[in-house]
Structure formats: C-alpha cells, structure tokens
Amino acid sequence: MIHLLYQLYERRLRRQIRRRLVPQHIGIILDGNRRSALKQGFNDPRQVYKLGAQKLDDVLAWCIELEITAVTLWVCSIDNLQRSPSEVAAIFAAVEAKIASLTQTPLVHQLRIRIRAVGRFDLLPPSTAAVIRAAEEATAGYDALTVTIAIAYGGREEVADAVRDLIRQQITEGDPLDAIVEAITPEAIDKHLYTVALPNPDLIIRTSGEFRLSGFLLWQSVSSEFYFCDVNWPEFRKIDFYRAVRTYQQRQRRFGQ
C-alpha cells in the first residue's frame, strides 16, 4: 500500500512540474553519507561513500527526464580532506569508481551526457585525476546534460583562483598596474571561474537537514533559489527531487528588481 501511494504521489508531482518551466542548472550538496551509513549499521568508509555514489545514477535519470541541462554535484570539499586518511581514501575511491563506471556506460554516450570536474586538482591523488581527465576527454563533445563533479572544491578558493588567473592574464598582456586593478570587475572574474562554461545555478539543493551552503558555488549562487531537504543523500528519493523542483517553480524570481 505504501509503495502504491508513493507512486501515485510521484505521478502527481510530475504532472505539476511539467506545467511550468524547470530549472536548467541545479547544484546539489551531497550531504549525509555518514549519517545514513550509521543508521544502516555500516562502519567501513568504503561502504559509506559507495552508497552515496550509487545515488548519482538516479539523479542523472531524473534530470534527463525533466530535460534539465546541467547539474553540479559537490562530492568533496577542501575541508573534507582534513578527515581521517581512511575516510578521505574512501571518498576518492568511490569517486574514481563512479566516474569510471559512467564513462563506460553506453547510455551516457547515447544520451550525450558530458562529464567534467572542478576543484583543486593538485590536491587529488594521481589516480583520481587520471580518471577525471579520461572521462572529460571521452565525453567532451556531448551537450545534452553537463554533469560537473565538484571535488576538492571550495567556493572561496574558486574566487581566489579566478582573481589570480585574471591578474596573470593582464600581466601576460603587459598591462600596467593601474589597468590591472581596473580590470578586476565582476564580469571579468566571471570569465575565470571554474564554471565559466555553465549558466549560474537556478536551484541549489542540500540534503541531510543542514541549512547552509558552506561556500558551494559562492559566487554563482547570488540569484539561486535554495532548497534544504532533511533526507540524507543516499536516501534521496525521486519525490524529494520533484519537491525541490516544484518549490523552485512556486517562487517568484525577481533578481533584485
């Protein structure tokens, strides 16, 4: 009976969503892996993050169904790298396995899903960086859905990197100091962000019940709508995703006007 009610509610949500415009770029903070694992009695960090990685397949299917064109997933922050070596290794192992699996999945190529990653790649193990590069190269020509993996990522670090890149560019072009200073504008910084090829996110979802962004897409989220869900990431359901999209559709976006 519960399963039937769930299906009926899901269909109702889908009908409501399809009547209005959906967000084109969704950012998701994948929070609650450890809490979910503890509830299920898992202690091995590898099992913890494997659960979270498996949820990615569902999310991609939901995005394709609604014709969402971009999704950015924050899987590991720079702060997360301060956790125990075994847990950090488990995070990287789960990311490597999932990205490699996606690259080898025929449906990814049939549906033209592009895979890319952003973050401080110098902080990644060589094996993780290699898997990411291979996935980016294998899917570089696709444009139906862009999946961005934010790994070893921090919002403040991204802005700092963008400003540094902008200044380096100006120096390379031989601009004087006054011109370099004047060139540091929001529009110029935009062009040096990790996500330069993507539109700013329309909707940002955070799972696990935490009510903060923790620096995720700090610059890009200035006009984003936020949705905080109390479900842990591995338990994130289609109805949770639909509810987030419906909530976005019910809000009036004024963009400061």
Short description:
The chain is of the alpha/beta class.
Q: What's the arrangement of secondary structure elements?
A:
Elements: H1 2-17, E1 25-29, H2 33-39, H3 45-65, E2 70-77, H4 85-103, H5 106-110, E3 113-118, H6 126-138, E4 145-153, H7 155-172, H8 177-182, H9 186-190, E5 203-206, E6 225-228, H10 238-250
Parallel strand pairs: 1-2, 1-5, 2-4, 3-4, 5-6
> Order of strands across the biggest sheet?
3-4-2-1-5-6
Number of strands: 6
Name the helix and strand elements from N-terminus to C-terminus, one letter apiece: HEHHEHHEHEHHHEEH
**CATH first level: which class?**
Alpha Beta
Annotated CATH architecture: 3-Layer(aba) Sandwich
Note the total helix count: 10
According to CATH, what is the topology?
Undecaprenyl pyrophosphate synthetase
Q: What is the terminal-to-terminal distance?
A: 47 Å
Helix content: 40-55%
Mean pLDDT across every amino acid position: 93
Give a quick account of the main beta sheet: strands, pairing sense, barrel closure: 6 strands, parallel
Spans with pLDDT under 50 lasting ≥5 residues? none
The total tally of domains equals: 1
Shape: globular
The percentage of residues in β strands lies in 5-15%
Tell me which oligomeric state these chains represent.
single chain
By CATH, the superfamily comes out as Decaprenyl diphosphate synthase-like
Structural class: alpha/beta
Gyration radius over CA: 19 Å
